[in-house]
Structures are given as C-alpha cells and as structure tokens.
Write a structure and sequence with these properties.
The complex is a heterodimer. Helix content of chain A is 13%, strand content 14%. In chain A, strands 1-4 form a two-stranded antiparallel ribbon. Chain A has a two-stranded antiparallel sheet with strand order 2-3. A two-stranded antiparallel sheet of chain A has the order 5-8. Chain A starts with 11 loop residues before the first strand and ends in a 9-residue tail after the last strand. Chain B folds into 3 domains: 197 residues, Aldehyde Ferredoxin Oxidoreductase,  A, domain 1 (4-Layer Sandwich); 186 residues, Orthogonal Bundle (Aldehyde Ferredoxin Oxidoreductase Protein, subunit A, domain 2); 181 residues, Aldehyde Ferredoxin Oxidoreductase Protein, subunit A, domain 3 (Orthogonal Bundle). In chain B, helix 2 packs parallel to helix 24, helix 8 packs parallel to helix 10 and helix 14 packs parallel to helix 16. The chains are: A alpha+beta, B alpha+beta.
Amino acid sequence: MIVAWREPMSYRITETCNGCGACTKLCPVEAIFGEKKGLHVIDKALCIECGACGRVCPVEAVRDPFGIPCAMVKKSAWEKPRFDTKTCMSCRICIDACPVGCLGLSAPAGPDDPHGYPFMEHEKACIGCGFCARECPVEAVTMNASPAGHGGG
Amino acid sequence: MKLGYMGKILVVDLSTREIGEEIIPDDVYEHYLSGMGLAAYILYSRIPPGADPLGPDNILGFVSGLLTGTGSLFSGRWMVTGKSPLTGGWGDANCGGSFSPAIKRCGYDGIFFRGISDRPVYLYVKNGRAELRDASHLWGKDTVEAEEILMRESGGRARAAVIGPAGEKLSLISGISNDRGRLAARSGLGAVMGSKKIKAVVLDGRKRIAVHNLEGIKQLSRMCNRWVQFQPPFLSGPLAAYVGTIMRILPTQMAQDGLLYKILLKKWGTGSMNQMSVEMGDSPIKNWKGSSADWGIEKSLSVNPDAIRQTEKVKYHCYSCPLGCGGICTTKGVYKETHKPEYESVLALGGLCMNRDPDSIFYLNELLNRAGMDTISAGGTAAFAIECYEAGILTKEDTGGIELTWGNTPAIVSLIEKMIRREGIGDILADGSKAAAKRIGKDAGRFAMHAGGQELPMHDGRNDPGFNLHYSVEATPGRHTMGAQLYYEMFQLWKKVSGLPRAELLYFKDRKYEADEKKAVKAAACSKFMNVVNGAGVCLFGTFLGAKRIPVFDWLNAATGWNKTPDEYMEIGGRIQSLKQLFNIKHGIDPKSVKLSDRVLGRPPQKEGANRDRTADVEKTMVGYWSQFGWNQETGKPDPECLKSNGL
C-alpha cells in the first residue's frame, strides 16, 4: 500500500536566523520550531507557503521554495484583500482559503440582495498571503497595499 | 505528484485508539477517482462479509471529492460511507456545507473509522496532529449545540461533522450534520457513528490543494458561473404551481432543460417544487395512496415558495457554490431560525402525512436536523404509522394516547418527538418503517413504502418510472439522487459522451412507461455519471445545468493533469457501480430482492390525480440496466468476465 511520498514545497530558514521567534508566533500552521535565540526550522510537511515568516523576519533569514531570500516588509505595508461584491458569487472559497480565518461573511447586502459577502473581519490577523485572491475563480478578490474593505462594490 | 487529490487517508482504530496515515497509490485515483469511488475501494476490501453494521468490523468513511478545493464550482460535497444498518448493504449519504474542503485541508481525501470506542470521543485534527478526545460533555447534546461547543473549544476556525441524539440512540434513520444542521441523512449512517461512540469529527486544516492547471480550472469556472448567474426577473410562486398543473393536463411532455430548474433553485431553492411537483404528479401524497386530487393548490398553498421565501433571512451557499439554493429562515416557537426546509422535508412532513401547517414543518425540520434524524425517513415512517392507525393495526393504546389521523398536526409533531426520544411507540418507529412493520406484525408491511429498508424520497415513480428503476437497482436503494428519466434529460450527457441517445424533445407521456432498451442505456448512463460526480464531490443540482455548461470532465483533467475523455470517465463510473454491487453481494444482498411495494409501482393503478391509470414496473428495464454494466442478466451479479474487463 505504501509508496514513496514526495516532500511538499516549503520555505526554509538559513543560518542567519537570530532566533527572535517572530516567525513562530505568526506562522498559521505552527510549522516553525526552535529555541529562543537558537536556529529555527520549518517543518516541510506542515508549511503551506504563505510566506508570512519571510515578511516578518528582521534579518531576512528566510528563503522561499525557489531559494530566493525573502525581504522584510513593514506590517502596515502588507497587502490586504479587497472584495468586488458585484463579481463575487458568495461561494465562500476565499473564506475557506484563508489560513488565519480573518475573513467573515457579511449580513445580507439589502432587501434586493439576500446574499452575504466576504469581508475583512479580523484585519489584525491578516498575514497578506493572498490565498483568498489566488483561489477566487472569478477574480473578485484583489490584493492591495491600501487598507482593506469592500472595494469596487 | 498529487494534483487535485491529497493522496492520503487517515485511518482511526477506535478499539485500539491507533491513528495512522495511509498513502493511496495514484492508480487507485485513476481507477476510482476520490470521494465515493475511493470509499468503495477501501470499504469493499476491508469490511468482512457478515459484519454487523453497528459492530466493530464496520468501517465509517468520511470522504471529500476530487474537485473539492481546486477552484472548480459546485464541488463542496462530502460523503459519509459504510455498511448501512438500514439496508444491510452499501450505504452512503451526501452533504454540502463546509466540511468537504476541511477534510482535504487536513491533508486527506478521506478519514476512515473502524472498531468501537468504549466511551464517547471525538476526533480532532490540526496541523499534522490527530487525536481522539473525550466527548462525554457532548453526549446527549443536539447537533447545533454540540457544534457550538466544539467551535468554542477549537478556536472557531474548525469545521465539524456531528451526530445528534438520534445517532447516539442508534436510530437506523439517523444521519450526520455539519454547518448547524445540514444533514448527510440517508442510509442510517448516524447510527454507525453512534455505535462507534464518535460524537464528532473536528477538522482544522489549512493545507493547500495543488492542481495541474489552476488558470484553466478558473476559466472553466467562469464559463459555468455565467450560466448560473443568468436569471430572468419575472418568476412568481403561484406561476410555478400552475406550470405544474399544465404539465399534468397535457398528454405530452417536453425534454426539460435543467437551466430552467437552475433558475427556480436560485430563486427559491428546492422549495420551488413544493406546489409544482404535487400538481404534476411528482409528489407522493398520503403515504403514496393519495394524489394531487387530495392535495390541491389551495391545500399546498401554505408552503408556496413565495411564502417560504418571506421567512428567509439570508441565502446560504455551500462551499464553492455560485448558486446558493439554501437559506437561513426565521421560525416561530422554540427555535429562532432553521435551514430553509428542503422540498423533500416539506413534502415528507407535509403532503405525505396530509399536514397543512407550515409552522409545524419548520419546527420539525429544525427539530430533526438537531436530533440528526433524516426528514424523509421520519416523514415516511410517520405516514406509515398513520395508515396503520387508520387500518386499526395501531390503536390509541399503542400510540400512548395520540390520535394518529391524517393531517393531525399536533399528533404528527408529538409522534416524531417520541421517535427522537425513542419513547413508547417512538421506539418502535425510530428505525424506519420496515423495521417497525416487522415489530408491529399484523401485515403492517403493506403500508411501509420503502426500497430495501429505506423510505422512499418524494419523487413518484408512477410519474417518472426512472425513479422507480433507480430506487430498485442502486446499491443504495430508495434514493432519488442517482438517476431518473428527467435527470437524463437535464444531464445532457449525449453532448459529451459518445453513443448516448439524445433526449426526445417532445413525446407522449405514455412513452415513459414503455420498457425499451434505450431506457436501460439512459439509466445506466445516469448511474455512471453520478458516480463520477460523487467521486469528484460535485453537487447534483450543479449537474442539472447540463454537461456542457458544468464542465465536470474538463475540470477533472485540469485538476489532475490527466487526459481522459468523457467516455473514459463514464467507464470509471461504471467500475464504481460494479464495485458497489459487489459490496452488496459480498454482504448477502440479492439484487433481485429489492422489491418496491405494489402501490409505488401502480399495481393497481391510481384512480385519480396526475398518475391515474399509470403502472411503472421496473422488472424489464432492470435486466437491461444490469446488462449495461456487464452483470449477469439472470442474477444481477457481476460475472468474473465483467470484473476482468472492468479492471476489478
């Protein structure tokens, strides 16, 4: 029954790591392990390639799956999703795709529109991974550096 | 490379409390897809013959679909599978909501339980860890309460499938719930979960689902979505009812394009059929002995789709569904809200029992969802009990003082409450009408409208004989979700699959009752296609759009990187059907033994209503259907040669 199982793609931490633990706190899948001030490691089997560790690392010790070093980005400059409720199908794919659960479904839009739409419910939790935009089949979600909200609709 | 599917299952042994991952070879997916096909592959070889469905040898499998989470639409269906305690054979139940992607986001295509726990537990999976946790504080709680507690305990991001008190009390008509009362209701698999003492499966995964061609999938999804969003503005509830009346009066029928049904579903949900179906003869009334003559437009008016829509607060979409046939409705009484009652529930708790009170239907809908009991079987069993009472087989003494007459709303409500609590007469009825008839004796079986032990759904085979055929020939008998003559018209498979006959545009209704070879070909095509659909985790209602508008085959190729033709996928569907048939034979079910009651077949025919003078026998078409899969025409069993050519 058992056959060879391919290792998934993963982010990787290099020896520049100063063990500050910022990435461990942020990682949505608890994939990063390490002692305070020691070298941290990412569990390849758990990593979902959201890139949050790379954006938060102050010494730029994280490499993406292609081996490219990740640049630190100020949290206020992280991209946030915007939702176009005119294109949106209310299908909840984006809400399910979000690894931190920061998206919610709104109350019905109005008497003529009984559908709820996705919105940024916990903005502080958003790690700017863009999975919501990537998984939306109808391109109703766009990633934008300006504050999140109901754009376009 | 695992594309589209995760390539692994989780196997939990409740007796030893061992939990392990198993890697599934790629060629299993190529042969059986994921979802129901994968489950059939696992369960066929691992459940020993003669296994007690409520014993440790039965395996309960929760499976997602191959297309779930890939960017395709309508692909949020999960299935629960096992040996059914209700029918004794292959059991499956299908449900939407948000649980299907949760299975894959934990890294699995399916989660399988064997053994029996000595105390109530729930499975919790998060970030590569899986553990059995104590569930004694949840035992006895209804499905909504239990889900709320589990969400609080797991931080709110998780998804849960839970059983209610009906499953705990091993009611053979109990199901499994997710998203606050959406039930995988049929086959009695809630009882299997209850017998294993698993209260819930709680999943909090965040894994990515890799696909071969994401942009290609999205392009197909956008094309499909354009068809879904097309919606004319001029529809009204009464109009829908009168369309049904016209369909009844005309001697001819037109091939139906599912796009029309999609329009109704998008506006009202399945409740769009509440009156139309009665009018055209699709709804069984008064335990299948009545007709539209007993249940005219004025009697069904209280459940007109417009009336139900007025209670709807917000539309409810399952995961990845652009249509949103569901809704959350406000309700009077104990419960403040409920999932919009489906057509099946409205008719089973309404017309089938001659119950005209819509408030009671809303109440019972929520009550049964919370108890985790199937509304179709509960309504069917209540109607059976009423007819037994009418015939004097059950007395007021037996019912504990309930005056069990047709349309007596308080009596029906009280009876179903007793069934949930397994109290008095309710204890006898809680396992469905076949088991109850056996216990009651006195020839009560003639009033039990079931196929192989499962109560029949609210689609009358005397109106569409295709339903009667599928009720009898499927491995899970008594189901309306595998095929019908109407479904064949709506699937429009001839546009994609070679050698299938095009549906006739206009025909005399008499033609529906003629047993010819084409009917068998069409029915087999429905079953094969639905196995592909259930392997992909796609919604039946989505497939009503027609094979060109909902690109199931193309999505599958784009997700996996395979290059299979629709014909090849249909072959896979046939293989899954054969495997399920083998499962039943392994467990001692004779394919010829599933007999519908004479009343359901129209023997003798009804004297009034839409289906008067109609007899919808299945015997001739059944043999033709078997031969479409290469099964023995005498016995209905797959021959060794057929197995070989099927790669089984």
